[in-house]
Automatic annotation (TrEMBL), chains A, B:
InterPro entries: Fungal_SecMetab_SDRs, NAD(P)-bd_dom_sf, SDR_fam
Family under the similarity heading: Belongs to the short-chain dehydrogenases/reductases (SDR) family.
SUPFAM superfamilies: NAD(P)-binding Rossmann-fold domains
An example Gene Ontology CC term for this record: cytoplasm
Lineage top rank: taxon: Eukaryota
Protein name as annotated: C-factor
GO molecular function, one term: oxidoreductase activity
Length: 263, 263
């Protein structure tokens, strides 16, 4: 059973510069329809570029917000990632990329008994390897933004990579174990957290802040109208956390309420 | 560059029953030649079964220790895993399996800049998905040992899964970052640690203890005779840690010195 299957997602770039430009990835899931308008740090008029296969809601959003550029992206395909990064670079016309939010994600229902090598590989490719390769491709643009903000400390308004993780990927917390074992999902998110730590160690000195964040679960359980967290609470919470990050937050893991999560 | 490439490893079963039987997996690397005689919990005479493609040292060991049964195993191949589990079951003649040590591992040199999707997938398959599927296959035998020890608390002499991890896979410690970024290795071991936690949550109630352990680095750096840890220190340390584990250790992460590691 697929919960959030959005390997083929979108890049949404807010091209109003300054201030910093935001990229969101993998926004073809149900969650993203709602998250999208809120999660971009700035409101944003401009000029929109839509692709024919976009979900209706994303198309509408792009048409209504002319500063948004929407591009196709498959985070499991290096060619697609490279093409998207090239297009973003063109759109930015020499400006840097201030914020990369790796929001692509897939999830499968499983237990220790039913988990398969196939699902493990699929979710790792999407949830862990995807953010690795996307960040590699967008790194030159992030470096430009960091360089432009030279002299400032680390922050999301200078240059940052935000990896969207989950409390289910916290080994210490192992959230919601009784509700969903989902081994492939948990393992891929723990690995994403490790990637985040590595990125923080490597890129922090270049002025790029790297963190993992759990946006909370906005998916309603079967028969429910809303998830444990409302979309509004989640998106406002994430924005508040991002705004408060500084050098001492580099390489850390937060939830949408602003609580530090253990690895 | 391959450091420890032993996808096609071996199962080594000590068939002296009682006490508990041990299985080691993936022992084709340099490290295992030395680790093997020490790591098995019991000394062991008996009857040996060797495969033609075994490394010389393993063959010699098997011939010299008649209670050891050596079987081929590819932890990335479900058919191979199932066949090995079936053969172990036959060898055990109705007895359970007291200790499963998931010791298979691969490592590649990489940095954040050079890491590839191919290496990420390969190391995840070997270091994370392998232990998942091996444990799934051997679970009935582990359950038998746990059941035979009903009334006892959790321990490695009742029934246990030991996943061989690394301090390099501790997100909190991120050991040896300055020496080796090795992203694919670190991410696969962090995911293995998550798997260990999931196994502990699920199997602990059935009497099976599950832990992750860092045996220390016994690989010499280029130009050096020995690693930071000697083989003797590592193997004796690991055995001491395993002997001291109890119910409160379920789902934890240790190094060979007996120090708890953070996730």
């Amino acid at each position: 059973m697929d919960l959030l299957e959005n390997v083929v997602g979108m890049v949404v770039v807010e091209v109003e510069v300054p201030p910093a430009v935001a990229v969101l990835l993998g926004v073809a899931g149900r969650r993203s329809r709602h998250h999208l308008p809120h999660t971009l740090p700035h409101g944003a008029p401009g000029a929109a570029l839509s692709a024919p296969f976009l979900p209706q809601a994303l198309n509408e959003l792009a048409l209504g917000s002319p500063s948004l550029v929407v591009l196709p992206l498959d985070v499991t395909d290096a060619g697609s990632i490279g093409a998207a990064a090239g297009q973003v670079q063109e759109e930015l016309r020499g400006a840097g990329l201030g914020l990369l939010i790796n929001n692509t994600g897939a999830r499968r229902r499983s237990t220790l008994e039913t988990e398969t090598a196939e699902n493990m590989a699929l979710l790792y490719a999407t949830n862990t390897v995807g953010p690795l390769q996307v960040t590699q491709a967008f790194l030159p643009l992030l470096r430009e933004a960091a360089e432009a903000g030279r002299g400032q400390g680390l922050s999301c308004s200078r240059a940052a990579v935000v990896n969207v993780s989950s409390a289910m990927g916290s080994i210490g917390v192992a959230a919601a174990w009784g509700d969903a074992q989902d081994i492939s999902y948990r393992c891929s998110k723990a690995a994403l957290n490790m990637l985040t730590k590595c990125q923080a160690l490597q890129y922090g000195d270049s002025g790029i802040l790297c963190v993992a964040i759990d946006p909370g679960c906005v998916e309603p359980a079967p028969g429910r109208e809303s998830g444990p967290v409302t979309m509004e609470e989640s998106t406002q919470g994430v924005l508040r956390v991002l705004a408060g990050l500084s050098a001492s937050s580099n390489g850390t893991f937060w939830d949408w309420r602003g609580q530090r999560l253990p690895w």
